[in-house]
Predict the structure of ABC-type quaternary amine transporter.
Amino acid sequence: MSIEIVNVSKRFGDFVALDNVNVSIPAGQLTALLGPSGGGKSTLLRIIAGLETADSGRIEIEGVDATKLSPQKRNVGFVFQHYAAFKHLSVARNVAFGLEIRKRPKDEIRERVHELLKLVHLAQFADRLPSQLSGGQRQRMALARALAVQPTVLLLDEPFGALDAKVRKELRDWLRRLHDEVHVTTVFVTHDQEEALEVADEIVVINEGRVEQIGSPDALYDTPANDFVMRFLGPVTELGDRLVRPHDLQLLTGGGESGAVPGRITRITRVGFEIRVVVAVRDQFVTVTLTRNEFLSLDLHVGSEVQVRVAPEVANSVGQSRVLGAV
């Protein structure tokens, strides 16, 4: 169900956590609140859930003013970074907890728990304690517990932040597939740009309590509204007075190319399928990202004299020209 956040502000003493925030979250969509630590994204999520109270503004869920409703009456599922599992209860009982306190019939609870444990691939662990699960399995259990009460909105606060990189990657792929199956309106907080770009339908970039930009991952990456968004969503480098993506630069070994400036390679680093080349250009060090095949075709070495330019197709695009020229 849709969520409307209207003129929401929140202070903690002299600290402004949120400053007149307005966001519209469409029904059935997976939306990421992305930003640096302390930017206000978790505070906004907790206000949506009813765990914090805004100083001003209102929250609407499914067209109903939920600003003064208790968390229990908002019908939201909330998943924290650190699981908040009941250690003495089995996996099945953890998932059933919300249904039991709502006094649902036992047969209904048993059927719902079985269905959810199958959905999150934990059916074989139903009788285990949370301590007998891996971190990724505990987080899937927490998601199943949140979904058990059939919330209209699912809120996730840095759900994979306590996990290692490989498990995080596996779980965010799984979260995307899960969302496509259950179609519940989902909002998740993250400071991981790759996580947001890979999983979300829409990203809300929040910094210092303000919304910097809202849009699809492609729109934010290709046409950022300002320097902060561009720097926060992916790698950047400077060429002259331009801010540009390293993969949008070209290295040339010839001379006299339009828009190219001379430089000398000072460092070459391979990172997986990418080759990162650092070029000294006047008083700058410019990073250029190449594919392995591009790198090999140019026969580059530390000390090679090269020319650097923004790829013509990028320089000629309306969105990128606007961003680059704004720096």
